[in-house]
Inverse folding.
């Protein structure tokens, strides 16, 4: 399994538990369970069982119970998309996102998109937040404003040159409204397309469709920005070609014009002035290439880039990866029972009206992230409907990290269902049961009872899971590289 040097490097508690696990009955079955979860870092433990019955005769075709499993439980993957929580499940989520984005660029009939979409106009756009104050950065070959050439992993990158002058309130309010900025942007985009085509919006919709897939990413300064793939389709979606007027240049111009039009007005409150939230001026729109021509904006590069950031969140900026709000009042600072205007009992007892369940001063996080989280808490009573304290660990952002339009390609749910169907087919083959698609009359009744029995792993089990995860990830990376080479060869021929 591993060498003695690796085991010697473990801390005593992990090594002791690993030896206990290895010497316990059912170690091979435990290892098999861990492998079936993909090396999940926080597996869910279930107790119970299932029976497969012949509905006509009530004959038991197969029975399973966790009573014979190690610890009397079955371990299943947690399914968390965040790499900071579970690298294994995040890898699966990233893989699903990769195939979803790739299917909308390359085409995959099994995922609802024909290969002819490669001929449709497609662009990769990045919409950013405006400036909230000067920060340390790496502006090409020039030194930072502070006069230093920062290294790529320098901890000061993204932090303000002058924290006292940095507009932390505007930064978290912008993050908080980012999803609404995107929604208005998609509305204006369709209007700008129609205007440039010389058509009414209704006529433009009858002749074309714009599909997109996007992902949110945190910059080092803690501001959210969006990476998105846009594709022109015909009136019936990806199966039809776009009209002659739906060109790459028209789509690019419409994206730039729509981004410039969007504005959300935030009224003044308390010590905060009125603000007009807009997209930043650093808008990047590039055509997606089928093959490399010196540019990195190729189909597979875009799919890989989007998938990479689908599993990351505010922890990349140094913030916590867990909520810090008070669970009793959900961060509102108000008593859920006595929240009446003017009542002396309206303040939440557990957090004393702060909306916090953690002391920000005690968290081991960078000062810049602490200031952003503190700004969320300060603004909570001023904008109670924005739930800023509840999303302080996300620096105010409360939207979905990965979204797409209806006809861009397949869905994450459909991809998960394919995996579930594949595993069900494997089980039927192993048990000698007929395929219901080939034999509709041979139905099987499933009777199951499951109870939650906890989650997580012991130190020894966690070490085993980490080794399984690294092995599987290495194999998947090799398979992905091979798939990319086969795609390229197929396209060239």
């Amino acid at each position: 399994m591993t060498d003695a040097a690796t085991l010697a490097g473990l801390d005593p508690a992990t090594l002791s538990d690993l030896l206990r696990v290895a010497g316990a009955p059912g170690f091979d079955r435990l290892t098999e369970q861990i492998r079936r979860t993909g090396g999940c870092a926080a597996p869910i433990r279930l107790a119970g069982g299932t029976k497969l019955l012949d509905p006509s005769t009530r004959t038991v075709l197969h029975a399973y119970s966790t009573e014979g499993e190690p610890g009397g439980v079955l371990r299943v993957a947690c399914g968390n998309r965040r790499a900071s929580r579970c690298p294994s499940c995040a890898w699966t989520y990233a893989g699903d996102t990769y195939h979803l984005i790739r299917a909308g660029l390359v085409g995959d009939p099994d995922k609802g998109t024909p290969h002819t979409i490669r001929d449709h106009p497609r662009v990769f756009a990045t919409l950013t937040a405006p400036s909230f104050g000067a920060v340390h950065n790496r502006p090409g070959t020039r030194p930072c404003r502070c006069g230093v050439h920062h290294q790529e992993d320098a901890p000061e990158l993204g932090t303000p040159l002058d924290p006292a002058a940095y507009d932390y309130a505007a930064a978290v309010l912008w993050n908080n409204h980012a999803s609404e900025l995107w929604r208005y942007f998609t509305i204006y985009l369709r209007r700008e397309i129609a205007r440039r085509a010389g058509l009414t919006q209704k006529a433009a919709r009858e002749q074309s469709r714009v599909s997109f897939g996007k992902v949110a990413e945190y910059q080092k300064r803690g501001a959210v920005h969006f990476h998105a793939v846009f594709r022109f389709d015909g009136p019936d979606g990806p199966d039809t070609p776009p009209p002659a007027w739906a060109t790459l240049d028209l789509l690019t111009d419409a994206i730039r014009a729509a981004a410039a039009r969007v504005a959300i007005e935030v009224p003044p409150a308390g010590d905060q002035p009125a603000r007009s939230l807009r997209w930043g001026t650093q808008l990047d729109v590039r055509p997606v290439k089928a093959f490399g021509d010196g540019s990195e904006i190729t189909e597979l590069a875009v799919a890989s880039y989007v998938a990479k950031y689908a599993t990351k969140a505010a922890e990349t900026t140094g913030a916590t990866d867990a909520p810090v709000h008070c669970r009793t009042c959900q961060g509102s600072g108000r008593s859920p029972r006595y929240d009446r205007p003017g009542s002396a009992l309206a303040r939440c007892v557990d957090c004393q009206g702060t909306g916090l369940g953690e002391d920000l001063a005690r968290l081991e996080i960078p000062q810049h992230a602490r200031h952003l989280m503190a700004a969320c808490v300060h603004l909570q009573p001023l904008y109670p409907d924005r739930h800023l304290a509840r999303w302080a660990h996300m620096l105010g952002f409360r939207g979905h990290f990965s979204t797409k339009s209806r006809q861009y390609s397949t869905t994450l749910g459909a991809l998960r269902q394919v995996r579930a169907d594949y595993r069900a087919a494997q089980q039927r083959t192993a048990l000698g049961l007929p395929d219901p698609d080939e034999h509709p009359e041979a139905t099987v009744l499933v009777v199951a009872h499951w109870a939650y029995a906890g989650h997580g792993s012991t130190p020894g089990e966690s070490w085993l899971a980490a080794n399984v995860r690294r092995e599987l990830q290495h194999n998947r990376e090799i398979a992905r590289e091979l798939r990319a080479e086969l795609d390229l060869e197929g396209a060239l021929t």
User: Anything to note?
Assistant: The radius of gyration is 26 Å. Residues 87-132+167-319+400-404 form one domain. The longest helix spans residues 459-492.
